[in-house]
Design goal:
Shape: globular
Radius of gyration: 15 Å
Helix content: 25-40%
Order of helices and strands: EHEEEHEHEHE
CATH architecture: 3-Layer(aba) Sandwich
CATH topology: Rossmann fold
Strand content: 25-35%
Number of domains: 1
Structural class: alpha/beta
CATH superfamily: P-loop containing nucleotide triphosphate hydrolases
Distance between the termini: 35 Å
Oligomer: single chain
Length: 186
């Protein structure tokens, strides 16, 4: 019987982009329509990926801005990152690169296991960020990418599968994952 692999994932992004909704939908299969600012919360969920069981410890973080310092607990011992923005907010999208750069600087590395998530894809009539922009930032940062809707439960589980894929790709040294499998859209 294969060993259970434990992975820590930090979910980061600007305020009110849907980080908590994404995590709650993934872990509890529940969508909360109201907004309650998150201080910080940890969730645990097991998933199967490529025949192995993974226990994911997911850190749902408080919203960040460009002046927020990166907390040590979001960098030390973290295996992978989920960087979230709302497709209806250009500012939150621009925050993704700032957060990515902060993580790189803090960790002293050039590459991190990362999934960039365009949340709230159900708000397509309010879209401010195009899919091509998501693909471009993901490629520039060697990250996977996906658009999701926690409200409609679209691609929610895929976010965390992609994150595990990115973590394992780097841990195994196997960088040859086809681009098509790294970015998922509706």
């Amino acid at each position: 019987m294969p060993e259970v692999k434990r992975r820590k994932i930090a979910v980061l992004g600007a305020r009110s982009v849907g980080k908590s909704s994404l995590v709650k939908q993934f872990v509890e299969k529940q969508f909360i329509d109201s907004y309650y600012p998150t201080i910080e919360r940890a969730y645990v969920k097991s998933i199967a990926y490529k025949g192995n069981e993974y226990v994911l410890e997911i850190f749902d973080t408080a919203g960040q801005d460009e002046f927020s310092p990166l907390k040590a607990q979001y960098a030390i011992g973290i295996h992978g990152y989920v960087l979230v923005y709302s497709i209806a907010s250009k500012n939150s999208f621009e925050m993704v690169q700032i957060l990515h750069d902060k993580i790189i600087d803090y960790c002293g590395v050039t590459d991190i296991p990362c999934v960039i998530v365009g949340a709230k894809s159900d708000l397509h009539s309010s879209r401010q960020v195009q899919i091509s922009e998501l693909e471009k930032i993901a490629e520039a940062n060697n990250a996977a990418c996906v658009e999701t809707s926690a409200k409609d439960d679209v691609n929610v589980g895929r976010v965390f599968q992609l994150c595990v894929q990115e973590i394992e790709r780097r841990l195994s040294g196997n960088q040859a994952v086809p681009k098509a499998s790294r970015c998922i859209f509706q």
